[in-house]
Design a protein that fits this description.
This protein has one helix at residues 58-75; strands spanning 10-14, 17-26, 29-41, 47-50. By secondary structure, the protein is α+β, with helices and mostly antiparallel strands.
Amino acid sequence: MATSTQKPAHVLRCGGINATIWQNAGEYGPYFTVTFSRPVRDQAGAWRNFASFSLRDLDTIAFLTAKAKEWIAVNVRVTA
C-alpha cells in the first residue's frame, strides 16, 4: 500500500481522472499497483482525491487501465 511519503512511479491523466502507478517491494521482487482518483478542490481551496466514479467515467477508467498496463509492461523487468 502506498504511503504519503512514497512517490509514485508514474501518473497518467485523462479527463480529470488520474491513474497513479506505485512500485512496491515484494518477496519475489518489485511489483506495481495502480490507484485511480479524481482530484477536486474543496471549498477551502485544498485538494482532495475522490475514488468514486460515475457511468460516464468508466470509459476513461478503461482507457487509463490500458495505458497503465502498457507502462508497467515496458518498465517492469520480467525474470523467469
